[in-house]
Amino acid sequence: MSDIPLITPSDKDYKNNNNNSNNNNNNNNVNNGNVANLVNSYNHQISMNNNFSSNDLYSSSNLTNSQVTNRKSIYAVESESPLTYEDYGITQDTNPLEAKHTIQNHLFGFKPFKSKIVKKKIEDRSPEVKSLYVEDNLFVDKSIKTIGNYIYAITFGALLFLLFILFSVILTLTFFGFPYAKLFWRLKNFVLWPFGKYLQLSNSTNFNDDDERTPLRSGKRSVIQEKYSVSLIIGTGLYYLLISPILIIVEFIILSVSWEVVIMIPTAKLHTKLLVNLLKNPLLLRVNNYPRADNQILLYPVEAFNIYYYKFTINGMNVCLVNLLPFVILSLVFGYALEEHIPPIAIFISCILSTIPLSYYNGMAIASISAQTSFAIGALINASFGSIIELILYIVTINGSQEEVARSALTGALLGAMLLIPGLSMIIGGIKHKEQRFNPQVMGVSTILLMIAVVAAFAPTLFYKIYGNYSLSCGTCVEEITSMTCSSCIDNPDFYTLNCTQCLQQKISLNCGNCQYTQSNLDDDPVYTTKARTLMYICSGILPLAYLVGLLFTLKTHTHILHPQASDNRKSQQIGQSGEIPKPQSHNTESQGHGGESYETEWSKSQCIAVLLVCTTMFALVSEKLVDTIDPVVKALGLTHEFLGVTILGIIPSAAEYLNAIQFSINNNMPLSLEIGASAAVQITLFQMPVLVLISAIMNHLSSDGSFTLIFPLMDFFAVFFGVMVMNLVFTNGRTNYFIGSTLVIIYLVIVFCFFFTPS
């Protein structure tokens, strides 16, 4: 008898859970009768085979009717488990605004932003960070013999020590300023080594050192009486007219340097309070090794350096970024008031540094206002203001006849988003966490759209490079005679020469150097005017359409897949109802979160709008002067416009993305770090490029002269193509470490060096 193929059910085909049974029945449209008939057919086949029997097959267990109906069809597709709040790290302690902000970080159309948009309570922070916000650490148990304190003593401390001695000598020579001379003599040792000493404000009416031990009936005049005396008035005038201006200048320099160094902010706080009291109550200042009960304690410094101050925030912004804000004012002053007296390189550097805080403030405002509005409005704000910094720079560059720089800057931004952002994130995250993993299948809509976006954005380039007209361009040509016919020649044996007359030129050739095939002006090429330009406008219209499709997919049709759902077994995961994030009652004042806990946003809606407007206006002014300095900087540094665009102008405007990606990787959130680079690349290709093409077409009436077109140089095309290929290979791995990150950075550097050696 011929062998009959058997289909033997396995243990995994049967479920004992009634809920799973119902789901399987609904999904596969299989009823109990059909399954029973199918099993009977199998048993009939088995009975016909002498080698097998139904008893042998099912001897391990007795199948009931309910067990049989649980058999799953081979064509059934198992549904993936939906995302939960737990997958995003959202718990019952997370307030609604932060929960919504976290969800938006994982959605297409929203730029992931690391910083908190809700004020974090001081008591919830680590002890090291908590101590940064305590103004009066009067009893801190720390060692004062540290390297940082000694560095302060031999730098700022020694300078102020000598300066205070000089002040004391000058005031002593004036005779009238003797009380102030004693003041600086007392403070000279304090400014040299203030650590472990108490700076106090005397409550006594006497400014002598022994005023607290002076009998009440000693007959000594008080400060109230002395200040009306002629000598004290003259001495006070000398102090504020001669000494105070110098003191303010020196202290301001020390304050500025200390604050900019960040880890020296304790020194800045020390001298801020010292300067304020030297201007308000100078004669009442006392220095003691131990606090006195009848004096008010002003300072008890124990450290000049604190490495944890890089975590210090001011109004929700990191102090490192706040310290770059003065460069915005400096750039405007240098560029518009002192342009003729300041070197172009100094203006260029100042403008570049001012771009970093403006872009970060812009990103913070977008993230905050998006969390306080609906998903649709938030996506619209991200699409418009999310690229405003880059668009302003590119438009000003194109308007300044630097369209090649704008095109190179876009290429550099793409390379940075695809290679440098994930590379740096993997290196820094890998150093801390050894290895980080992610699911390559759920990298998001941004990764899926990236390849399509790059193909559509560079399709006009590929088309024109293949079908465009080429011409041979050469340098200076020189005529050369290759042969000559002569007659009437006489041999001169003395000089071994041959003298001829009546010579005729027969062949002449042109010797031309540096010849190469080039494409002429785009407007003069019929391939561009009739075909490539139309293709460029078609692609520019398709690219935003793909962006809208991604938004529709994320925010409308597939929200059940991309939005987290509340977990059934844990009520603590149920933030809001039906998976929605409840809106707070007020965004400017404290609102009630879960469990009655109050929370307060860092910035209200009105503050976010004001920040967006101010940042946009300031950067428009700064970018104007930045573009004006491109030619002098390129000439002074010996660089090419393409290299400057690919590196500095392509990276600096996106500084916020780099900082956020690194912060996510440090917190072991590699998917969001990679999503930042992918979403940035998608926004460049799907939004920024079409906008620039549209604006150029309007400004120049469809002419390519001085316009931005999607006809890139071949070097740019191949660089982006290789960048996409390498990034996709890395993303399919599902795990990252510092080795993989270093390879991405190395590839980026190789491409950048190729641009460095590219002829201008």
UniProtKB/TrEMBL annotation:
GO terms for cellular component: endomembrane system; vacuolar membrane. This is DUF307 family protein. Residues 147-197 form the Inner membrane component domain. Residues 16-33 have a biased composition (Low complexity). It is found in: Endomembrane system. GO terms for biological process: intracellular calcium ion homeostasis. InterPro entries: CaH_exchang, NaCa_Exmemb, NCX_ion-bd_dom_sf, YccF. It comes from the Eukaryota.
